[in-house]
């Protein structure tokens, strides 16, 4: 009877330790930093748009690198839940059409929810281009 009890106990411990959800082990092995800085590559929508968008690890800054797009009447930069920008965080007017630029991300912004960076033309309600942050 004791032998069966010990075998069942051993099996229970082995199954519990053999979980794919070994979060504590992952945290220990990576020094507590399991998430890379989200980054995306711009693709064109209504106008040619290119470059990369990168969020820093503290989620306080969005950097556009080698960014390029066409001019428009009023272009804003959004963090959005989708490309159509129905739900978004406004990062302000586009600082330039060609180059490297930085934008402050408001405190408390959920970067997993707002996973698209969108160059939005207000006057025509259209995306010039977007990058999906991954």
Short characterization:
The chain has helices at 2-17, 23-29; strands at 39-44, 49-55, 61-69, 75-80, 88-93, 98-104, 116-121, 126-132.
Could you walk me through the main structural features you see in this protein, from its secondary elements to its overall organization?
The chain has 134 residues and is an alpha+beta fold. It has one domain. It has 2 helices and 8 strands; from the N terminus they run H-H-E-E-E-E-E-E-E-E. It has helices at 2-17, 23-29, and strands at residues 39-44, 49-55, 61-69, 75-80, 88-93, 98-104, 116-121, 126-132. The chain has an 8-stranded antiparallel sheet with strand order 5-4-7-8-1-2-3-6, with no helix packed on it. Residues 5-11 and 15-34 have low confidence and may be disordered.
> Going across the major beta sheet, what is the strand order?
5-4-7-8-1-2-3-6
The main β sheet shows up as: 8 strands, antiparallel
Rg result = 22 Å
The count of domains is: 1
Instruction: Note the run of SSEs as H and E.
Output: HHEEEEEEEE
Question: Share of helix among residues?
Answer: 10-25%
The class by helix and strand makeup works out as alpha+beta
- Mean of residue pLDDT? 83
N→C terminal distance:
54 Å
**Total DSSP E strands:** 8
Q: In percent terms, what proportion of residues is strand?
A: 35-45%
- Total number of helices: 2
Low-confidence stretches: 5-11, 15-34
Principal-axes geometry comes out as globular
Write the layout of secondary structure elements.
Blueprint: H1 2-17, H2 23-29, E1 39-44, E2 49-55, E3 61-69, E4 75-80, E5 88-93, E6 98-104, E7 116-121, E8 126-132
């Amino acid at each position: 009877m004791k032998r069966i009890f010990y075998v069942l106990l051993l099996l229970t411990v082995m199954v519990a330790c053999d979980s794919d959800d070994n979060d504590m082990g992952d945290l220990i092995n990576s020094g507590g930093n399991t998430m890379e800085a989200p980054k995306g590559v711009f693709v064109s929508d209504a106008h040619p748009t290119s470059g990369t968008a990168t969020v820093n690890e503290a989620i306080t800054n969005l950097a556009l690198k080698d960014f390029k797009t066409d001019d428009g009447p009023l272009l804003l930069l959004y963090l959005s839940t989708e490309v159509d920008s129905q739900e978004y965080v406004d990062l302000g007017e586009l600082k330039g059409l060609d180059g490297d630029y930085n934008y402050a991300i408001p405190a408390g912004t959920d970067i997993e929810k707002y996973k698209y960076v969108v160059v939005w033309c207000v006057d025509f309600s259209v995306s010039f281009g977007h990058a999906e942050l991954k």
